Amino acid sequence: MLKRTALFECHKNLGARLIEFGGWEMPVQYTSIVDEHLAVRSHAGIFDISHMGQFFVKGAGAEKFLNRILTNDIRKLQNGQGQYTLMCNETGGVIDDLYAYRLAEGNYFLIVNASRIGDDFAWISKQTGDAEDFQLENASDRYSAVAVQGPRVFEFIDQCFETGEKAGAPAIKSLKKNDIVTANFDGTQVLIGVTGYTGEQGVEIVAPNQVIQKIWETVLEKGKTSGIKPAGLGARDTLRTEVCYPLYGHELNEQTTPIEAGVGFFVSLEKGDFIGRTVLESQKKAGPPRKCVAFKMTGSSPPPRPHYRIISAENAEDAIGEVVSGTQSPSLNIGIGMGYVPAEQAVAGRGIQIEIRGKLFPATIVSKPIYKKVN
After folding, report:
1. 153 lies in the same domain as 118
2. Mean pLDDT of 95-109
């Protein structure tokens, strides 16, 4: 039996096409993936991300514990700030990538991937040992979330919540990237983080299940004049692929390190010991054996898909890697993708071939991100 978010009826009423995703019945699109993608790039879109997991880590020992299990340096966060980070096993493989927020001293909030909630919580719980100076809570069943993304989001988002001096919460449009604030909505406290998964500006709103439907409806109403549209998982995937954001199970897994995946910036060796550090330090110094590259298809080639083979441009018999993400880019109107190749061949401008349904099509490795916004 697939799980459903608290916004399921909203999706049905909007005529969404629903699919299975990570054990959830989720909207893949409402009108079309291209239409929703372009709305986010030019105006605004709202996504249901309630399937994501929410953990709280609280107590005097929370900071020290999190710095031992996460790759980034949690000590750099001030109250009301967050950071992208990863959780690795002893061999440097990624258990999950996530966002960690410091709400207050000794009070941390983690947003984890939907498909990893159970595994993450079990693994984190195992690492706690006999520690009594912090508490770990899986609050995923109590909270829902939406992402509001696009260049026009800050035109209307403050109209949806009680913010400003009188409300005791800063205006959302005044916040910086990765900031998080507690605001009021209809008498209920909600968390609003300035982040997203699209390459556009915007926010992610985490709220108790009982108010998320009204938040969804309010954002759609207040954002109407700014061109907002509901958007599904299809557009979320094309948007994140264009800007080369990793997706767990594609670019990241327990056999892949952050260094190989190209997110080594979020591995802080300076902070001291943490799980997976030895392998990650070695790869940072010597370089990884393989790297995740971005590429564009050439000419009128069909779009690539995950698991398609990457073939050397010089030798049609030489399979050098595999596509992990691939799609038709609505912004660029060409096929794009990411895949792993030997480190020595991970060079921007290098030609490769993608095997699509038994035929080889030319492509070129490009620097990340694939889509670069022109201001």
Report:
1. no
2. 98
Q: In the prediction, which pLDDT does 271 show?
A: 96
Tell me the mean pLDDT in the region 355-362. Answer: 97
Mean pLDDT, the chain, integer: 96
Are 146 and 214 in contact by the 8 Å Cβ rule? The answer is: no
* Overall pTM > 0.90: yes
Nearest C-alpha neighbor of 210 from the set 127, 143, 275, 274:
143
Token pair for 17: 């096409």
- Asked if residue 250 belongs to a domain, the reply is no
Domain boundary among 94, 115, 136: 136
- CATH number for the domain including 203? 3.30.1360.120
190-194 mean pLDDT? 97
pLDDT digits (tens, 9 = 90+) for 119-158: 999 999 999 988 889 999 999 999 999 999 999 999 999 9
- Report the C-alpha dihedral over residues 94, 143, 177, 372, rounded to 10 degrees: 60
| pLDDT digit string, tens, across residues 200-255 | 999 999 999 999 999 999 999 999 999 999 999 999 999 999 999 999 999 999 99
Is residue 44 located within the same domain as residue 58?
A: no
Residues 303 and 360 in one domain: yes
Is residue 161 scored above 80 in pLDDT?
Answer: yes
